[in-house]
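Hi everyone,

Forwarding the result from last night's run.
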Amino acid sequence: MNELEAARQQILGDQKAISENPEMGQIEIQRKLAYYLRLIGQKDVEIKKLRKENFVLLARNDSLSREAKILQDGLSNVQKALRDSSLTFGVKQKEFSERSRILEVRNQELSDKVNVAAALRAEGVNVYAISTRGRESGAQNQKAKKLEKIRVIFHLQENPLATKEIKTVYLRIIEPTGVTLSDYSIGSGTFPFKGKDLVYTAKQRIFYENNHQSVEFIYSRPNSYREGRHEIELYAEGFLIGLGSFEVR
């Protein structure tokens, strides 16, 4: 049950309580109304933020797709020009070798551009707290002693350049001290990223369907969470694909 569904159930309960108890004080009714208005305002801000982020990511993906197409066309033209030049004018071996080396460099640049354009992107990263009693709620400002598990859920954007295949997604939960939560006995480990090894909290192998699928992690920590802001980082195929956070008090 997500936060909005929980709020809906609470509203129904409040309506029933008011109907069964007409003597309920106006102060209590006004307090409940103010809470629901704040919740609606908060969700409206989150929706606007997600729409803005999605627009920026789509524009970036379109730009990279166009650039990759231009580079691919340019690569084909260079290859054809080299073949024609070699056959028609008998280019010397040294010159041909130099041009081939240039072509290899451009081909690597193209490959890097395509890899960036084909990278997965996580959107709508939400974090929920699961209490020691199994109750789930938004993970903001949760008490450390009541927090048993964290559920991280997000969607993978559709990407025409991404391949439908099994992919590994890594989750990092970073404490206020900057230390990554990890427990090697329950699946934590390290993965390579930009020339160094990063510690991950948990990982998950998924089959990427390219259909805006949802992915979720549920992480149970043996010890209590530290007070303060915890950062969420998601990685896949050598890229940072999504961010989130939650507060513990």
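Residues 1-117 form one domain.

Cheers,
N.
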